[in-house]
Amino acid sequence: MKDQIILAQQDTNAIIQELLEDGSDPHALYIIEHHVSSQDFDKLEKIAVEAYKLGYEATDPDEDVDDAGNVVIGFDIIAESPLNAELINAQIAEILTLTVQFGVNYDGWGTYFEDGSDDDFDEVELMETLH
Fold this sequence. Notes:
Blueprint: H1 2-21, E1 29-38, H2 41-53, E2 57-58, E3 62-65, E4 71-82, H3 85-102, E5 105-110, H4 123-128
Antiparallel strand pairs: 1-4, 1-5, 2-4, 3-4
Helix pairs in contact: 1-3, 2-3
Subcellular location: Cytoplasm
Subunit structure: Interacts with the C-terminal region of Rne.
Pfam families: RraB
């Protein structure tokens, strides 16, 4: 799991850098989508419940077919956060712990470009994003 965390943290830095280079607002709140998947719906349901207990939201599951023809179910564990590597990496560590516990896949995270049209977050909101 430690290797997964290191790789995910490297991805975090790259994603943040790319967003900022593209002009995304460094002061906006971002919807962070942590992608998880499995062939076992029951395991995904359990991780969704545990993620909710930790303060995350979950999207509805979607089915897809992988390259080998297997049906894979996935959903996103959602958090709202500033574009801060330390906070996002803490989320990754929490979610990776759950994925290992329930035997599902962590497929990375993503977010959307923010142009700064939303209100800036304040220090109270920042503290609420810490899990």
